[in-house]
Amino acid sequence: MRSVLLLSLLLSLAAISSPGQTAPSASPIDMMMNYTVTPNVVYSVANNYECKLDVYTRNPRGTVAPTVIIIHGGGWVGGSKEERVLEILPYLDMGFHAINVEYRMARVSPPPAAVEDCRQALRWLYEHAKQYGFDTTRIIVTGGSAGGHLALMTGMVDAAAGFDASKEWDDALPTMKVAAIVNWFGITDVNELLTGPNRQSYAVNWLGSLPEREKVAARVSPLSYVRAGLPPVLTIHGDNDQLVPYSQAVHLHKALTAAGVTNRLVTIPGGRHGGFTRDQMVSAYAAIREFLDQAGIHPANR
Question: How far apart are CA 68 and CA 83, in angstroms?
């Protein structure tokens, strides 16, 4: 069953191959034989909710490779890891392991639960690195929309931010870091979406009637954590996005640049909230490959 699922996913890969390619670098059959799927691993239990992730690993088991964490979007109120599974395919084609993560949404727990869960998923990766072959020096975290926001938070915060479960994490594991963040039109300033012309119902629903919700919103906003020493950040955003203002990507880019953080903003002209054309997606993934090459994360660089 797992092999059939992976084969059906891999058959879609040609649509997002890099420029100059009319087909994936490896055939779907070859890739199916080279990967194992371990679905619905419980990585955390909170509020009586089992947080699960799916693991895609290269064969043989334990092969050391860079790893991408995929975080789904949906405004923190909807979506699922299964809906975003095709986003794994370009990374499998490049030779990565992949982890597809779900987390507590608004109907289960208010913020900062989603951020805590994604940090817990990163902890799970570190804890199981030897078992699965995750190269902890080459971890990428990515997602779109709310998933982009959570990817940024996962990669930008540290234990001092207070989202990690306990102080014991620092004693049991090395400092949890990621090597790069690929942010697809993620929210960078949550407060901007609560009131005024950029108000969005999904953000209002996520925060609900929390006491001091503006303080909570600032605490879960990536812009609050910009500082020197962060991992490289690639942001891809359409300049006609109706759900997450393009200006949020611009502000993040400017703040990261001012802090001396390696980063790049890829603007999709006329692009809305995803739904980009095939050519735009090909260009975006070409930028991702270049970004990973420059950061020394691509498997070919080891």
Answer: 17
